[in-house]
Amino acid sequence: MRLNRKEVAELLKNVQGKILITTHKNPDGDAVGSSLGWFNFLKKMGKEVRIIYRDRVPFFFDFLPGIGNVEVLEEIKEKFDWVIITDVSDPKRTGFSEILAEKSLVIDHHITAEPFTDYAIVEPEISSTCELSYHIMKLIDENLIDMSVALPIYTGILTDTGGFNYSNTSPETHTVAAELLKKGVNPYEVYTNIFERNRINKLKLLELVLRTLSFELNQKVAHITLFKRFLEETGAYPEESEGFINYPRSIAGVEVAVFFKEIEGNSWKVSMRSKGRVNVAEVAKSMGGGGHRMAAGFEAEGSLEEIKRELLKKLEVALEKAHYENL
Ligand code: AMP
Ligand code: MN
Ligand code: MN
């Protein structure tokens, strides 16, 4: 059942029993920020909460209050009364084969969302799950939004908007950010913690990945590739490639950037970013994934060549469609 903000606020005021909070695998800033923000907030409400992820928290989020509470498990065997899942609307993307809970709630902002839970709030227009969560928290009890909540929430807004630069940034996003700053968030501190603690390994990885830069479809598509061996060669962590895709997207004339990441021999994670004309969420969805109009992704099995060929066919059609829509 789809709920509005007020209904979610009422629901969360009344949840009882053991509550589990989780998010998507390979958690990004919005995933960590929203799940940890809710964990700290619900604790303040006096609820019994646990926070469990499938994948570890990237080190650059280690400054967030309460981050040490995150448990990383391959499967969740215990049964809960409630599960709250943030920043994802696809059970596969939680990384868990099964989550046992009496009742479930999704809080998300993906345009391709098809909620699978008892309750869901999905606002595709909003910048981030964190911004949406903040509005709901305010409806519950603004006084409970202290630094332990404000800091993770600000972090998710910052990362999902690319530092308040992407088109999902609205006047409301800035208003929320201003309110969070008034609560004590220091933007420079958050920025330096996340973006200015790069390890040399990451820059070495960037060097190898940028060497793979190639163009297709009249230079409108630029792609880069991360082969697993690059991680071994540089000692970089997979999560340190976050943001690399902005380099191919930044090139003049490029409409779509693609980042192929080898997970295992024949298993790939593909990220796409659009400059706005092409709806990459639609393309990702047709490849079994999802996301937003300008940022989307999917996973695929097969050889890189096969995946590339199939994707480029779809991107060709999408570029043509975008061309006619924008005439
Ligand atoms: P990423 O490229 O991993 O940074 O993801 C960009 C956007 O696409 C995010 O909003 C993701 O949630 C979404 N996304 C990425 N991979 C998938 C997938 N396999 N299924 C659904 N959505 C995805
Ligand atoms: Mn996310
Ligand atoms: Mn998000």
Structure write-up:
The chain has 2 domains: 5-195, Alpha-Beta Complex (inorganic pyrophosphatase (n-terminal core)), CATH 3.90.1640; 200-325, Diaminopimelate Epimerase, Chain A, domain 1 (Roll). With 327 residues, it is an alpha/beta fold. The strands form 2 sheets. A 6-stranded parallel β-sheet has the order 3-2-1-4-5-6. The protein is globular. The mean pLDDT is 97. The chain has helices at residues 5-14, 29-44, 129-141, 147-160, 171-182, 187-195, 200-210, 228-234, 246-249, 280-286, 304-325; strands at 18-22, 48-53, 71-72, 79-86, 100-108, 119-122, 214-216, 221-226, 256-264, 267-274, 290-291, 295-301. It contains 11 helices and 12 strands. Residues 90, 93, 110, 271, 289-292, 295-299 line the site of adenosine monophosphate.
Task: Outline the secondary-structure elements.
Layout: H1 5-14, E1 18-22, H2 29-44, E2 48-53, E3 71-72, E4 79-86, E5 100-108, E6 119-122, H3 129-141, H4 147-160, H5 171-182, H6 187-195, H7 200-210, E7 214-216, E8 221-226, H8 228-234, H9 246-249, E9 256-264, E10 267-274, H10 280-286, E11 290-291, E12 295-301, H11 304-325
Helix pairs in contact: 1-3, 2-3, 2-4, 3-4, 4-5, 7-8
